[in-house]
């Protein structure tokens, strides 16, 4: 069912395999999402929005609107080695098919962080704190890493857990 891992001191890591998490949504009433169980491929090409996602800005890349459990993004929207910001959530793909999410609120003073840059560094534009793709603090003034957000991934769609 849920293929999740808990990180050590940095953040709870939620590893979401494309297949392993679909049953976890049953309690959320994500009927539309569950209907897609068993299909593991993203719906479209992976490179169409990579550039947009890695070069800054906030993506509103949600593609699912199944009602109740709408997807917040498609896996194809999240570049490998990078990520996007959707609303108040940073979604990253540190390695192939590994998706993690964090609150976009900087732990220093709550400023929304930027999407990962070309080097995979998540930077807070307010005072310059930096975070890795795993949400680890790399540079202050923040004193902690980004707060994890649990997600599930199924059929190429990313959902809040
Ligand atoms: S609010 Fe992010 S570094 Fe200060």
Automatic annotation (TrEMBL):
Keywords: 2Fe-2S, Iron, Iron-sulfur, Metal-binding, Signal. Residues 36-78 are annotated as: Disordered. It comes from the Bacteria. GO terms for molecular function: 2 iron, 2 sulfur cluster binding; metal ion binding; monooxygenase activity; oxidoreductase activity, acting on paired donors, with incorporation or reduction of molecular oxygen. Residues 1-35 form the signal peptide. Residues 70-160 form the Rieske domain. It holds the Pfam family Rieske. Residues 36-63 have a biased composition (Low complexity). The keyword Glycosyltransferase does not apply. The keyword Nucleotidyltransferase does not apply. This is Rieske (2Fe-2S) protein. It comes from Glycomyces terrestris.
């Amino acid at each position: 069912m849920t293929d999740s891992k808990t990180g050590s001191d940095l953040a709870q890591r939620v590893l979401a395999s494309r297949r392993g998490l679909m049953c976890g949504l049953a309690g959320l009433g994500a009927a539309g999402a569950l209907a897609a169980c068993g299909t593991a491929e993203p719906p479209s090409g992976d490179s169409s929005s990579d550039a947009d996602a890695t070069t800054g800005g906030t993506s509103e890349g949600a593609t699912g609107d199944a009602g109740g459990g709408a997807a917040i993004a498609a896996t194809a929207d999240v570049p490998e080695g990078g990520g996007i910001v959707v609303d108040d959530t940073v979604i990253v793909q540190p390695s192939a098919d590994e998706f993690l999410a964090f609150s976009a609120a900087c732990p220093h003073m709550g400023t929304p962080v930027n999407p990962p840059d070309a080097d995979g560094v998540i930077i807070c534009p307010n005072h310059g704190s930096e975070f890795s793709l795993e949400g680890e603090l790399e540079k202050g003034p923040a004193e902690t890493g980004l707060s994890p957000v649990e997600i599930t991934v199924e059929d190429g769609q990313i959902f809040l857990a």
